[in-house]
Amino acid sequence: xxxxxxxxxxxxxxxxxxxxxxxxxxxxxxxxxxxxxxxxxxxxxxxxxxxxxxxxxxxxxxxxxxxxxxxxxxxxxxxxxxxxxxxxxxxxxxxxxxxxxxxxxxxxxxxxxxxxxxxxxxxxxxxxxxxxxxxxxxxxxxxxxxxxxxxxxxxxxxxxxxxxxxxxxxxxxxxxxxxxxxxxxxxxxxxxxxxxxxxxxxxxxxxxxxxxxxxxxxxxxxxxxxxxxxxxxxxxxxxxxxxxxxxxxxxxxxxxxxxxxxxxxxxxxxxxxxxxxxxxxxxxxxxxxxxxxxxxxxxxxxxxxxxxxxxxxxxxxxxxxxxxxxxxxxxxxxxxxxxxxxxxxxxxxxxxxxxxxxxxxxxxxxxxxxx
Amino acid sequence: xxxxxxxxxxxxxxxxxxxxxxxxxxxxxxxxxxxxxxxxxxxxxxxxxxxxxxxxxxxxxxxxxxxxxxxxxxxxxxxxxxxxxxxxxxxxxxxxxxxxxxxxxxxxxxxxxxxxxxxxxxxxxxxxxxxxxxxxxxxxxxxxxxxxxxxxxxxxxxxxxxxxxxxxxxxxxxxxxxxxxxxxxxxxxxxxxxxxxxxxxxxxxxxxxxxxxxxxxxxxxxxxxxxxxxxxxxxxxxxxxxxxxxxxxxxxxxxxxxxxxxxxxxxxxxxxxxxxxxxxxxxxxxxxxxxxxxxxxxxxxxxxxxxxxxxxxxxxxxxxxxxxxx
Lengths: 371, 326
Ligand SMILES: Cc1ncc(C[n+]2csc(CCOP(=O)(O)OP(=O)(O)O)c2C)c(N)n1
Known about the structure:
Chain A has helices spanning 23-29, 33-58, 72-80, 95-100, 105-114, 143-156, 175-187, 219-222, 234-249, 278-285, 289-299, 305-330, 348-364, and strands at 87-89, 163-168, 191-197, 200-201, 204-205, 225-230, 254-259.
């Protein structure tokens, strides 16, 4: 059922599943040892965060968790290809991308706990790299035309900024995605479209979303290039996105399809054994993006057990601390927050309803409202 | 400004023109809004004045127009997006509901969604299917939007400028039946009329009629016909969200009787909301049941049958007579 990057002649890759790699291609990346290690550490951190999230979900402290196991290279590599001034609108599952951009883990967790997100800097011009994003949208695909509008607007205002927007193989069926790509082609908007083809949209396999061989093949229909990349090869996702970012700076959008596989369930509420076989998952486990990259790092003398151990320990500690912090912050919510920031210029009825609720809480106590 | 004033659609164009001159972050986008000036000429003259970077002809996709407008707003611009006919706003609803209306809340104020979505709305011009819809209730029901429906040229200009300046997403519904049906003196240069304030179009003691948009005209005509028989107060709400509840309640406390007139279908329409408000705030002033004069709960009909769908002066007059006879 599942497809592998090796089945496509034109699929871009650098490090093969067995860890062998193309020396020249690696040299051309011009990454230093520290940067090579950073990609690794982001992937390990994403996995550690996921393990923590799932553990807390099982203990009933988190209501919900989206899984990302096996997708780390498709998330981390593209994020690493952006400059600090660029924008990145991910889907919620792309933890690794946000980690690579420097987003605090607690911030990632709080999205699931309270639904809204917060920013440190008020002004766009003062935003850190990780803040250059719009809040996550649960309606998949809708972020695509919005990202196009955002970058189009930034370009009209004279800013040299590129945007990366992620959408899944399921989300890519939506009309919004077509509208956004079409707009970008027509108006030369500096955007990179990253189709994260993890081959499943909950229980619907990719051949239930499209009859096309690849998503990359859609790009010429919009008047720009599409490229298929091995989504489990972090150096390849990095390279192809970087090329796309360069083209975007020149006003040419690109569609990058990262062909990968979601090995975990869709979310903590999903039972993936109902719709797919363990053999399929196993065959993709052999292509694990972290294991593969470890073999590459070993060959470059950048990896040994001691290093791996320390990276893993640090990642686990950070994930644990972030979760503790997030759970503590969650508990601070108060009822009037319901109405906070509903409008920038709030009409009076919002205040009236807030007063109505607060009077009830005052009279009966918060406990009377818990269900 | 022409000596004899502007039509409503000319006032809309002038509002955008004046505000674009005032604030270079305002951009207009939509289908055919550029060289052609829009199918109703609501963007007439803007392309020549401001060029293709600020008056943008888009591909034909309402999802794309709404989605791009949301992104443009996040980028720091102030987009005014036109949906060619209100019925095509259905295609843009997901973008509007899932993002425009909740961007400010979900980003805790980081990204206001400062955009205006303009659409010619309502029936009465003998247009094809999906060109006559009245969709105000679905926007009013969704938290996070402001919804404005002007009924006169002077209001249209002042309210549209206020909408463009408002930091929240505003759905600006233009009653196309009265786009060109009369002229009114309109002040030159930019000015604002406050969003959220109703206008008493005619004072009266016997009954309050609450209405908006194109229905204001037949309502005033009915009130004129009843001159000497019933003293009718006509309140044009002008803004449906936030609704001027004070104006509604004050008027009702004075008259004790009410008729609500809207062209949208009855079930789930705003007449129900206004009636509930009166029950909550002024029940003991009530002298008679509240009447609703609305479009029927039908799929909007074409051509000749429109005459039976849209409330007219006769229906309004008879409803008023019924309410005052109790
Ligand atoms: C518009 C919309 N429809 C349905 C859903 C429910 N839903 C959440 S995730 C999902 C599958 C998405 O699959 P895909 O786009 O391939 O991304 P993935 O979750 O695999 O990363 C669905 C159907 C949704 N969030 N948004």
